[in-house]
Design goal:
Layout: E1 5-13, H1 19-29, E2 33-45, E3 48-54, H2 57-68, E4 75-78, H3 84-96, E5 102-104, H4 122-129, E6 135-136, H5 140-147, H6 155-166, E7 172-175, E8 184-191, E9 195-201, H7 211-224, H8 229-245
Parallel strand pairs: 1-2, 1-4, 4-5, 5-6
Antiparallel strand pairs: 2-3, 7-8, 8-9
């Protein structure tokens, strides 16, 4: 039996709702074998992040080489990177192993407000890693941080910011509208030729921990299975929406995670 393989390069969430843990749950739920490269450890629960331990760049590189030298990796999801040294190590590893199916989620600030990427590393992320990505998946504050401007307040501004991010070398940008207001949450997938609007009704729940990680890893799962980017993004949006809709069934913590395994539990 041939199983598609995806790798997550990200931070670990000790509470299990986001980061590496959410990525591996997503891969499993979508029928993809998941491997991991851990860039940071967080002391974290559903209330927030209390401490971060960054993994040395040499050990990040060693994990990359161990995984990619053995497994037939079909796609890579990148999340929390913490600092400049790790960003550079990851970019070098992607080039060393000729990885092009790369989904970059530019994780900068946790839902609780904790800073997950050093401010001085934002420029390095933009210059060094964005050009390696098949698609980047910033939310509105992350897109603004990458561009040094205020967050978009309309879909027109979202499209304009996505096009500005394309100029930094990404092949596509999925700019997420979850932080906006209104009855629907609309994301825009923008590449050199198309703008595709993906909208879903907002769901009344506080249990949304890990949504960004889950979306980006679901896209990577689709790419690992051989889907083109547009189909992978559409299927990932549908999957995330369903995990949010089922989140209240879990009752985990004070601001709980989405329900990755709602179809089986």
């Amino acid at each position: 039996m041939t199983v598609p393989v995806a790798v997550t390069i990200a931070g670990s969430d000790s509470g299990g709702g986001a980061g590496i843990q959410a990525d591996l749950k997503t891969f499993s739920a979508l029928g993809v074998y998941g491997a991991s490269v851990i860039t940071a450890l967080t002391a974290q629960n559903s209330k927030g992040v209390s401490a971060i331990h960054e993994v040395p760049r040499e050990f990040v590189a060693a994990q990359i080489d161990a995984v990619f030298s053995d497994l037939p990796v079909g796609a890579v999801k990148i999340g929390m990177l913490a600092n400049t040294a790790v960003i550079e190590a990851v970019a070098a590893g992607l080039k060393r192993w000729n990885q092009t199916n790369v989904v970059l989620d530019p994780v900068m600030i946790a839902t609780s407000g904790a800073r997950l990427l050093q401010p001085r590393a934002v420029d390095v992320l933009r210059r060094v890693l964005v050009p390696c990505a098949a698609v980047i998946t910033p939310n509105l504050p992350e897109a603004a941080d990458l561009l040094g401007c205020p967050p978009a307040e309309s879909e027109t501004e979202m499209r304009d910011q996505a096009q500005r991010l394309l100029a930094h070398g990404a092949r596509a940008v999925l700019i997420k509208g979850g932080h906006a207001h209104g009855p629907k949450s609309a994301d825009l997938l923008v590449d050199a030729t198309d703008v595709i609007r993906l909208a879903a009704a907002r769901i009344a729940t506080e249990n949304t921990h890990g949504t960004g990680c889950t979306l980006s890893s679901a896209i990577a799962a689709g790419l690992a299975k051989g889907h083109d980017l547009h189909d992978a993004v559409r299927e990932a949006k549908d999957y995330v929406t369903s995990t949010i809709a089922a989140a209240d069934r879990l009752q985990i913590g004070s601001r709980g995670p989405v329900h990755h395994f709602h179809k089986w539990w």
